[in-house]
Every structure is written in C-alpha cells, then in structure tokens.
Specification:
Multidrug-efflux Transporter Regulator, Chain: A, Domain 2, 3 helices, alpha+beta
C-alpha cells in the first residue's frame, strides 16, 4: 500500500532536489503541505505531489510551445 503522506526527504528524493529545495517549495506555498505532530513536521500528500509534477509538466509544455527554440532560461543539468 502506498503511503498517503511523505516526508520532505521523500519529496526531495522523488523530485531529485535537495531537502532545502523541497522545504522552500512547501514554505512558498508552491507545493501544498501540512504540519503534523508536536514538533510540527512537514508532510506532503502523495496525490498533491503527483498533481504538482503534472502541473510542472503542463507549465513546461506551455513554455516550450511559446519558446520553441530556446530564448528562455538556460538548461539545468
């Protein structure tokens, strides 16, 4: 059974980013999350992470369609 909620470290692993970048996505509100427990640890619902990824694909597709041969941001590796 798939876990409903993920740790920020899990989110970072899925997106192949640092834990600090995952935290920044949550703190900015770009990636919805909740705080749970006495120490207020962040959790991201799996379904919301999948929606974030889908939306990122949509944004990227729109960018490519409006900038077909570059002219936008430099490539990330």
């Amino acid at each position: 059974m798939e876990k409903r909620f993920l740790l920020l470290s899990d989110v970072a692993e899925v997106l192949n980013i640092s834990a600090a970048q995952a935290y920044a996505l949550v703190r900015s509100g770009e990636l919805p999350a909740i705080k749970v427990g006495g120490r207020g640890q962040w959790r991201v619902e799996s379904a919301l992470l999948e929606r974030y990824i889908k939306d990122a694909y949509d944004r990227t597709r729109e960018f490519v369609n409006t900038h077909p041969f570059g002219g936008g941001e430099p490539d990330d590796e």
